[in-house]
Specification:
Layout: H1 9-19, H2 24-37, H3 42-54, H4 58-70, H5 76-92, H6 95-111, H7 113-125
Protein name: HEAT repeat-containing 4
GO molecular function, one term: oxidoreductase activity
Length: 132
């Protein structure tokens, strides 16, 4: 795909979707194609930087990093994003935040399926996904 030499909106969409594929080899090949096509707009940069933060596979992470380096893109945004994610995870996993929410859910389960259904519906509407 990287050798076609032309970038259409559809090609870009496919590559952006491929960066988030479940298959590591597909993510690696998407990086190769992006580098070969010199596809370096803000959408692609942002997707690559996000993927670098979220990526668990070391081979893919290395490929994403090489692609960013080929475009002379620094990873400063990644450190900031990683820090924000870690802070939020730490906050959400604190006992004083987590335990009341679990107890409230447990309470509602004991009250019956109607109450639980209302609670679940409420959380699905909540944009943050938290049980208040």
């Amino acid at each position: 795909l990287g050798n076609i030499g032309q970038v259409t909106t559809r090609v870009k969409e496919i590559l952006l979707r491929s960066i988030r594929s479940d298959v590591p080899a597909v993510r690696i090949e998407a990086c190769h194609c992006i580098a070969t096509l010199r596809l370096c707009d803000t959408d692609v940069q942002s997707a690559l930087q996000d993927q670098l933060v979220l990526e668990s596979n070391e081979f893919v992470k290395r490929e994403v990093n090489q692609t960013l380096t080929a475009f002379n893109i620094k990873n400063e945004g990644n450190q900031q994003m990683r820090s924000l994610i870690q802070q939020e995870m730490s906050r959400l996993c604190q006992e004083e935040v987590l335990i009341p929410k679990v107890l409230k859910l447990d309470e509602s389960l004991e009250e019956g399926p109607q109450k639980t259904g209302l609670l679940i519906d409420k959380t699905q509407m909540d944009p943050k996904g938290f049980i208040e």
